[in-house]
Specification:
The chain contains four helices and ten strands. With 196 residues, it is α+β, with helices and mostly antiparallel strands. It has two domains: 59 residues, Double Stranded RNA Binding Domain; 114 residues, no CATH class. The strands form three sheets. Strands 4-3-5-6-8-7 form a six-stranded antiparallel beta sheet. A hairpin with a 7-residue loop joins strand 1 and strand 2. The chain is elongated. This is PLATZ transcription factor family protein. InterPro entries: PLATZ (IPR006734). Pfam families: PLATZ (PF04640).
């Protein structure tokens, strides 16, 4: 059940200390066992009962947990969620991250429809992401995370493009889908122009 999977992921306490192996962190999540947390030694153990189970591995990115899109994308509809490339892994954040002093600007920057976090600006031809994490998409009524992947008629495969950011070439992922533009952009906090 996809709804149960999302709820288990959001409740999971990743990177807690393993009860069986001291000083090891639990970054594996057994879906079959309804959220049992495991460390790398637990999963590599020859007598591990989870060998034949569905197990997700979480990765830390900026102190927050992520999942590989190649893995979670098989079980949940992750379209419109901001994708990141971290240590050569293509990932999505599980939970919404707090906005440390981030204020909404009046620049034409897309923001998460649930929490308001700024998202990556897309190049022309690609639609903007709508959510910053699995949690934000799940909490939003605008787009269902639980939609069947097979039912995504007009969504083309996630396609990698080069994004030119301040002179450096940076790889980002673009969710290619035709969407209607918002009629009135959300008003941001007014900012003074820089003094030169």
């Amino acid at each position: 059940d996809k709804k149960e999977l999302v709820e288990l992921l959001l409740k999971a306490k990743f990177y807690g200390e393993c009860e069986r192996h001291n000083h090891r962190k639990c970054n594996f999540f057994c879906v079959t066992c309804k959220g049992a947390m495991l460390c790398d030694l637990c999963t590599n153990n020859s007598d591990c009962k989870h060998k034949s189970h569905l197990v997700f591995q979480a990765y830390k990115a900026s102190e927050y947990e992520t999942l590989k899109i190649m893995v979670i994308g098989e079980y949940l509809n992750i379209s419109h969620i901001q994708l990141y490339k971290i240590n050569y892994l293509d990932v999505v954040y599980i939970k919404a991250r707090p906005m440390r002093g981030q204020t909404l600007s009046n620049r034409d920057v897309p923001i998460c429809e649930e929490c308001g976090r700024e998202l990556v600006i897309q190049q022309e031809g690609g639609s903007s992401f709508k959510f910053c994490s699995i949690e934000c998409k799940y909490m939003s009524n605008a787009c269902s995370l639980l939609d069947c992947i097979e039912e995504e008629d007009n969504v083309r495969k996630v396609e990698m493009v080069d994004n030119i950011d301040k002179g450096s070439r940076k790889r980002v992922y673009v969710d290619k889908e035709i969407i209607s533009k918002r009629k009135h952009r959300r008003k941001g906090v007014p900012r003074r122009s820089p003094l030169f």
